[in-house]
Design goal:
alpha/beta; Nucleotidyltransferase, domain 5
Length: 134
């Protein structure tokens, strides 16, 4: 995508809006990352304790980080050809993506990083149009 684009991102999904001469192109990239493992219904009376069934905290964190990196790589694969990238979102995902872009030598294309709350797709598109119109 040889365009200016913006993306709203959190750990669950990324909404990418590209602005080209031909108009707008929208893409939603869903993350399959789970922050916490699903809890089973076991009790001490019915079977093994939960602590025996769960991975250690550091193992869970490594798995979570690995899943996030796969998600960020999918986002980067989609936005790789953009000339200018505006990144915004509510949490840490925007900064984590920025670091990942810098590792891939794409950090120079970032034109801004902003903290915003949840937004609808039309609000996201309007924010990106407004940013690149200035």
């Amino acid at each position: 995508m040889d365009a200016k684009l913006g993306l709203w991102i959190d750990h669950r999904k990324a909404i990418v809006v590209g602005i080209t001469d031909k108009g707008e192109e929208k893409k939603e990239i869903i993350s399959e990352v789970e922050k916490q493992d699903r809890r089973s219904g076991d009790s001490p009376l019915n079977g093994a304790y939960e602590s025996l069934q769960k991975l250690a905290d550091d193992s869970r964190q490594r798995a979570f980080t690995g899943q996030l990196n796969i998600y960020y790589d999918r986002v980067i694969a989609y936005i790789r050809d953009a000339k200018s990238i505006l990144i915004f979102g509510p949490g840490e995902a925007k900064n984590e993506l920025k670091q990942r872009l810098e590792v891939n030598n794409l950090g120079g294309r970032i034109v801004g990083i902003e903290t915003v709350d949840k937004m609808t797709e039309p609000q996201i598109a309007a924010k990106i149009r407004q940013h690149f119109a200035e």
